[in-house]
Design a protein that fits this description.
TIM Barrel, 6-stranded antiparallel beta sheet, 15 strands, 411 residues, alpha/beta
């Protein structure tokens, strides 16, 4: 049957309207694909001494829309998904204990993160370089999600195309192929599984490792790492999650900030409704060169002391930072929208409730999909400095207030 031009035009408009309504209806409170607050759980935090130990049973599922299990791995010979710490993941039922959180929090979505810094990039590079290996990996992921009851996979390849971490020049294309094949296979299962990708905010890394527009189309969500943009390795004191450029930013540090990093993905073709901003619940610490040199940009001579819980030089969880702040001088970087603290020896750049609210307001303004926080065990989870999970609660409050807002980006 043929229609006149007016009727055909009306039908086309009706079809477009239906598509847009269907898209919008999937972007509210109860939707798997709507606004989100993603919390991260790290398996290694369980090994801390005494009350510092953080277990699966400590996870506050009522404060998060999603929780991510860090990490699983790629088997170096079979190229299948595998446990990173089998003694915990399997022998101590880590996977199953994690996914049974749904018994207590039925609306909670649970993801597994594969990769991470310690995993390296070489296994990803080798797994993705042939279609047969990718196919084998994707099939193993489907079995894994079915077996343990996860709701999806977060791919944390740090970083495609980075030769120093085992990458090569074909990673950029092969990474896209992997995400596209995961997404298609997930859709074919008929399950509401999602595939998300954790990505950098550093343009130099994007140029060599990421097909921004294609990757954004293939993935359900893009998780932009909005932290570790500075550190003790740079030999000058600075906050590590600045919102914007400051007058002292020069050379490679120009544009190395949250706003510019997220905008690279948006300008590259990502829908805001697919972009999640990552925020840290930890600080980066430095040893000052001189007691008087305590302003941002002052020379430093190495990493600050390791914390009691985190036990890593140059790195402190907020649970450790909040306890020592009363004995330090605190300042605020207006352009960066971040606090810092110092004494005569050490300097700390970190996040607090004020800085997180600034990032939250920006996320809402940009109509992004939400925020992820790394990680629960770095917040003041025992409440030694006040209410437990003080930083997590700030983000949760935003999530509750804004989760029903439409995330549709209108042309």
């Amino acid at each position: 049957m043929r229609f006149g031009p007016d009727v055909a035009s009306s039908l086309a408009l009706l079809s477009l309207y239906t598509v847009l309504i269907n898209q919008a209806s999937g972007l509210f409170d109860d939707s798997f694909k709507g606004r989100r607050f993603i919390c991260h759980y790290t398996t290694w935090s369980r090994t801390r001494q005494n009350e510092g130990a953080y277990t699966i049973e400590d996870i506050p599922g009522n404060l998060c829309s999603h929780v991510v299990y860090n990490f699983v791995a790629i088997h170096e010979k079979t190229y299948e998904i595998t446990a990173m710490q089998p003694e915990f993941d399997i022998e101590e039922n880590g996977f199953r204990r994690f996914t049974t959180l749904k018994d207590k929090f039925p609306n909670l979505k649970l993801l597994a993160a594969i990769g991470g810094w310690g995993h390296g990039g070489e296994k990803f590079s080798k797994m993705t370089e042939t279609r047969d290996r990718r196919k084998r990996f994707v099939a193993s992921v489907v079995k894994f999600l079915h077996k343990y009851g996860f709701d999806g996979l977060e791919v944390v390849w740090l970083y495609p195309g980075n030769f120093e971490r085992g990458g090569n020049v074909t990673d950029k294309d092969n990474f896209y192929y992997l995400i596209r094949e995961l997404q298609k296979t997930f859709a074919d299962t008929g399950r509401d599984w999602e595939v998300s990708v954790q990505v950098p905010a550093d343009k130099s890394r994007l140029d060599v490792g990421y097909q921004i527009d294609a990757l954004c189309e293939a993935a359900d969500f893009i998780h932009v790492i909005g932290y570790d943009l500075r550190g003790w390795w740079n030999n000058f004191a600075d906050v590590h999650s600045p919102m914007a450029d400051r007058p002292h930013d020069e050379g490679n540090f120009v544009g190395l900030n949250v706003e510019h990093g997220v905008n690279l993905w948006l300008q590259g073709g990502c829908l805001p409704s697919k972009v999640v901003l990552g925020v840290p619940l930890f600080g980066r610490t430095y040893l000052l060169d001189t007691p008087e040199g305590n302003s941002i940009g002052s020379p430093t001579i190495g990493a600050g002391s390791a914390g009691e819980y985190t036990n890593e030089p140059g790195y402190l969880g907020y649970c450790e930072i909040c306890a020592i702040l009363p004995n330090m001088t605190t300042r605020w970087d207006e352009k960066a929208q971040c606090p810092y603290a110092f004494n005569t020896i050490e300097w700390i750049g970190y996040e607090d409730e004020r800085s997180l609210r600034a990032k939250i307001e920006w996320v809402v303004q940009k109509r992004l999909a939400g925020i992820y926080a790394f990680s629960l065990d770095l917040d003041d989870y025992r409440g030694h400095c006040g209410e437990p999970y003080s930083l997590t609660r700030v983000i949760h409050k935003y999530y509750e207030e804004t989760k029903k807002q439409s995330l549709v980006t209108w042309p």
